[in-house]
Every structure is written in C-alpha cells, then in structure tokens.
Design goal:
Radius of gyration: 21 Å
Distance between the termini: 32 Å
CATH superfamily of the largest domain: Enolase-like C-terminal domain
Largest sheet: 7 strands, parallel
Number of domains: 2
Helix content: 25-40%
CATH architecture of the largest domain: Alpha-Beta Barrel
Oligomer: single chain
Length: about 475
C-alpha cells in the first residue's frame, strides 16, 4: 500500500490548510535568565506535516484513531542556524471532546492551526531560554485554541501538544547558538536535581490498547517485555465499561500472570493500567480492584494512571495502589495540585507537554519526593529519544531501580521502519529494545540519543528556504 503524505507550507491562516477538509496561568518566577547563555532571535519560521496511517484503529478514552499527524516546526535564527522541531499530534489524548466533535482530520487540522499561530507569534522574538519563550506564548496560544474550537473548557494539554515542535526547535536553536552539543549541558541549573541520573537501563513499556489481541500480549511477555501498559476504561456506560475491563483483566492475567522476570523483587510481571479518566466514581474503580483481588491479580498492579475525570477533583489519598497523574498534570502548578490530592506518581510527557513544561513538572515532583516515569503519545522514533532523554535521567522508579519509558509506535504505525530511517542514528543499539529494556551506554550519552543531531529527512523538507 502506498502511503499518502501531505506537505503543506503554511502562512498562519485558516485558508492555508483548507484543502484538507475542515467543514493555567504559569509561574513566571520559574522562568530562567541565564546570563552566561547567549539569547536567540528567531528570524524566520515555517511548518509542515505528514499524515501517518496506523496498522489498526487505536482505541483509548472510548474512541479510536486511524492516523496520526507528524508536524514539523522550522526556525532560523538571526545568526543563520536552521533547526526543525518535531511534534506528534494526539487530539484524542489531549482533548477527547475536540476529537469527538470533529472529524478525525478536522481535529488534527485545528491543533495544527494552533501550531502555525504560535510559529507566527514567535517570529522576530528574542528569548533568553526556551522555558521563557514557552511561558510568554502559552496563554495566548491556549486562548486561541478556545476560540477556534468553541470550547471554553479546552484542556491545556491541547495547546501544549500543539507547541511541542516549536519548543523542540527553540531548544535546538538555543543549543546551536550557544555551542551546546550534549543534552546534560542543555538542562538549566534549576532543573538538574530532577534530571541528574544516567541510567544504564530503562524499561521499554509497550502499550496494550483495547484492540490488541491477548496472543500479542503473551508474545510481548515472551520477548522479554515485563512492564506493560494496559488500557482500561473501554467504550460504553460505566457498567458496560466495568464488565469489559473485568473480562479483559481476567484474560490478561490468565495469559501472563504466571510469567516471571528478573527485573522485579517478587519476580512477577507488574501491571500498569491507564484509564484515561474513564472511571467516574471511586466505587467503580474499587469494584475493578475487588475483581483483581478475586482473580489474584491485585498484588501485581504497580500503577493505575488517570482513573478519574480531571474536573471531578477526587481525592485519592485513601487508595492503596499507586495512582499516577498524566494529562491532568498539564503544568507544574497542576502537578502540585494532583500531588496534594494523593497522587503518588507523575507520568511525564516531554513529547506531549513540551520539554520546557516537563522539566518544570519533574522539578515539582522531585521537591515533593514523588517518582516520575515517561509515558508515550505514540510518537515517531526521533521523539522516542526526546522522551528517553528524560527517562534516562529521572530517579529510579520505586521497586524497580531503573527508569521507565513507554514506547508503542512500533506496535501501531504502518510505516514504522520507514519512519525509523529518519533517525540520525538509526540502527544504534540504544534505539532498540533488548529483553524488555533500552541499554544506554556511553555512546548513547555522548550522542544525547541523537536529539541534538539534525535529521536529513526533516531538514530537506525546508530546503527551499
């Protein structure tokens, strides 16, 4: 099958993408002013995107995606440096309401409009750090999103997702202007305590969505994957969802519950459930946990991520199992609020909430001794290493002693191998999972996982500029 990719040079107006069929305040005191670093002036900008098809419909939050847009944000500095930042869009994850109220392409187009608006906003701007740049534009970009979606309660993750490519481009331009060639040297001093480790191993976490056959889950365990993310909160009413989730948990536990691993203290495979806010009441979640106890799976549940709708603000301090905040921790301020509500882990997404915001969130978690791990957004191979850069430097996750990194693109993209060829170090040992982990050697850290190295594929898209 031939993959259709569409490249669009944008001009910052709705008309620029009409051909594709469109029918919280931040803590300013956290902004860094590093006087030893050279400020950057953005002279010119541009953006494009590719539409990547999936192997099968990808289900979570009660919905299904069939393709994922990869957007590119190009920046040129006043000094002449040119950099491309990448973003993988996920409208369903960032705001399920926008996804359900538009066609799939329409929702993606709306998010892309936020990206393009932001690119035009920063053209001509001078910034002292990428964190400062994000602080300066986030609220305006978010308000623009509220306007064009017509959704007053638009989730801030929608705007942050749209800004990932811009933020990455800003970091790359900042590194080039200041002669920085190693990611460790790029981390602002304020955030180094939260990102000071150099793990030799990081667990590679695959995602088992609603539609993944049980046999594929068993096969993943046979291949050495020992920490798997399992989507719960299936479509339907709360009762229908619960019964489907109970059946799914039983099937999974029967298939892999007996398997062993050397990577955990008890030798059992830990379960990582992600509900994406689908459980509306504690009582419903407790009924699922009672079922887990009944079938002997309870003690293997290591994490439950985002069980409840964000807006309900349910205190979870009485729940024994470690609950993790993901999309509800939009910003560092939101992360602190979740920690105060009893959440005992934070899922970081440098590839969904921007690297700048992720550093701020990780910093808050570190100060409150709350462990973090990195969750995926079904991103492309280069962005996997942007996420890995964070996972490799976080404190060891309790009970495991290593970092955790979810990556599921290989399970979902129809053209994953072609996308991998765009990675500047495609084929390097540290880009591959071996026995359920990424092995991160000196070469990995010396090359910063390739994230500071230009990708010929993406730069060539802007050759005419």
């Amino acid at each position: 099958m031939i993959t259709r990719r569409k490249f669009v040079k944008t001009t910052g107006t709705l008309a620029a993408i009409s051909s594709i069929g469109l029918s919280s305040s931040l803590c300013r005191s956290g902004t860094l002013k590093n006087k030893s670093m050279k400020p950057v002036t953005i002279q010119d900008v541009d953006s494009k995107f590719e539409r990547e098809p999936l192997i099968r419909p990808f289900g979570f939050k009660g919905g299904y995606m069939s393709e994922i847009w990869q957007t590119m944000s190009w920046m040129q500095s006043e000094s002449g440096f040119k950099k491309v930042g990448l973003c993988t869009q996920s409208v369903l994850w960032s705001d399920a309401g926008v996804f359900s109220s538009n066609s799939e392409a329409g929702g993606n187009a709306i998010m892309y409009l936020l990206t393009e608006r932001a690119m035009q906003m920063v053209k001509g701007q001078r910034f002292s750090s990428p964190v400062e740049l994000l602080d300066n534009i986030l609220e305006e970009v978010y308000n623009y999103g509220v306007k064009i979606t017509g959704k007053p309660g638009l989730r801030k993750t929608f705007a942050l997702n749209a800004l990932v490519g811009l933020d990455n481009a800003a970091w790359l331009l900042y590194a080039a202007e200041n002669g920085i060639t190693n990611f460790d040297d790029l981390i602002p001093q304020e955030f180094k305590p939260a990102l000071s480790h150099h793990h030799e191993k990081v667990a590679s976490i695959p995602l088992m969505a609603y539609s993944i056959p049980i046999e594929e889950i068993r096969q993943a365990a046979d291949e050495g994957y020992f920490f798997m993310k399992i989507k719960i909160g299936q479509p339907g009413t709360q009762e229908e969802m619960l019964e489907k989730d109970k059946t799914r948990l039983t099937e999974i536990h029967n298939a892999i519950g007996h398997m062993e691993t050397f990577c955990t203290k008890d030798g059992k495979l830990p379960y990582y459930f992600d509900a994406n806010g689908r459980y509306e009441k504690k009582e419903t979640l407790f009924r699922l946990l009672d079922h887990a106890k009944k079938i002997g799976a309870y003690d293997q549940i290591a994490i439950i991520e985002e069980p409840f709708p964000e807006e309900k603000e349910i205190d979870v301090s009485d729940i024994e199992i470690r609950l993790a905040a993901d999309e509800s921790a939009h910003t560092d301020e939101d992360a602190l609020k979740r920690i105060e509500m009893g959440y005992r882990a934070i899922a970081l997404k440098a590839i969904a909430k921007t690297l700048s915001m992720t550093m701020k969130i990780a910093n808050v978690a570190k100060k409150h001794k709350v462990p973090c791990f990195c969750a995926d957004l079904t991103v492309n191979p280069i962005l996997v290493d942007w996420n890995k850069a964070i996972a490799a430097r976080l404190d060891p996750f309790p009970g495991l002693g290593i970092g955790l990194l979810e990556t599921n693109g290989h399970q979902n993209y129809k053209n994953w191998e072609t996308m991998f060829s765009y990675h500047p170090f495609n084929g390097a040992s540290w880009t591959k999972t071996k026995d359920g982990v990424f092995e991160l050697n000196d070469d990995y850290y010396e090359k910063s996982g390739g994230i500071l190295t230009d990708s010929g594929h993406y730069l060539e898209m802007f050759n005419n500029l």
